[in-house]
Automatic annotation (TrEMBL):
The chain crosses the membrane at residues 64-84, 96-121, 127-152, 173-191, 197-216, 247-269, 289-309, 321-339, 345-364, 385-406, 412-433. PANTHER family: SHIKIMATE TRANSPORTER (PTHR43045). Coiled coil: none annotated. Keywords: Cell membrane, Membrane, Transmembrane, Transmembrane helix, Transport. InterPro entries: MFS, MFS_dom, MFS_trans_sf, Sugar_transporter_CS. Residues 24-438 form the Major facilitator superfamily (MFS) profile domain. CDD domains: MFS_ShiA_like. Its main location: membrane. This is MFS transporter. It is a multi-pass membrane protein.
Amino acid sequence: MSETSQRGFTPTGTISTPKDRRRVVFATVVGTTVEWYDFFIYAQAAGLVFAQLFFAPLGESMGIILSFLTVGISFLFRPLGAFLAGHFGDKYGRRIVLVITLILMGVATTLVGLLPTYAAIGVAAPILLIVLRILQGVSAGGEWGGAVLMAVEHAPKRKRGLFGASPQIGVPIGLLLASGMMALMSVLAPGDAFLEWGWRVPFLFSIVLILVGYYIRRRVEESPVFVELAERKERTRTPIAQLFRKHALLVFIAALVFAGNNAVGYMTTGGYIQNYATNPEGPLALERSSVLLAVTGSAVFWLASTWVAGWISDRIGRRTTYIGGWLLQLVGVFTLFPLVNTGEIGLLFTGLAILAVGLGFTYGQQAAYYAELFPASIRFSGVSISYAIGAILGGAFAPTIATALVQATGSTWSVALYLAGMTVLGLAATLVLRDRTGIPLGPDHEAEQAKSPIYGMARA
């Protein structure tokens, strides 16, 4: 009997005890929450203060655009993080990658909180800000794939969607915490105090979250699928080369699925709505803390719908859940700005909450969906790189594009049409792929996993 069998692992990637499963779910939720809290804190600050503090000489309009561009620049380095994490994750395991990416993200975020402004050190300030944002991008590109595979590969076959939703809900929880911390500091340090020091506190708080996340992730067992691959000595030496040689088209289509969700999601996670609604030179000029509280509240709807989508996908399939989610997201896209533009905080919250439901139903099932697309030996690389490319095509420059569209047209309808187009693109990519809900994930079934899920193709 192999060591894998003695531990209670099965070839399908499940583990024996409910206690172990609960530990995995808890660890992926906490770790992903910490990662995305750090990532979103930056985006929140980019929409609220970075234009004044780091790009002031360029003027209000150009400062905002460049501030949002620093959010997008990090996405260009996500593939680097995905390539590195995929390579080492497929060769040496999922857990070690998760620990390293968590530390990298936390260090970068904390240093942003200590960074001098343009007034203090001149052009070095925005340069250092961009460097730290790039490090966040590298970390984010590597973290997600490891987290979702730890969750899905430990899951019982019929609960992959539910287990896979655990790292997914870390994203809305991270948004909730990030918006909540910014809202709290807006109250504790109003006006000039927020610009002087209040915005720094949420960044510095990251060090506490990193210590908690590190402790929890270190206690989680390695993925059973990877353990089995390692024992059989079937780990691929060049997983990325294998991925693109056999599955390049699948990577691109899978990336488009995520792009459709990510572009729309970055209206809030990328700080666009926060800036649009609070800009004193804009049409609304709403109070900062009220807008941040509305975003925080909408994150609760995103969290709930993400969890429900993962659960439902185990019953009706990932593809069907996605199709329904795209339709809900389209409704959210076309109701968002009419409600936001009323200037009423309650209606702004309503618009964000409706959008959040659609976002959840195009996100909760993604972890299981991606994991079921790729063979075990190159799964980390496939999942991570598809996600990173989708983030570039989707959310990377969505706030910048939205800002430029409004400045060019004078209307938010142009933004709604752009977001609707991205939603339809995600739907089209979903329709191209077969449903693989419940496909075996272990190395015994590599041949079945290698069959292309793309309609009209026998193999990738």
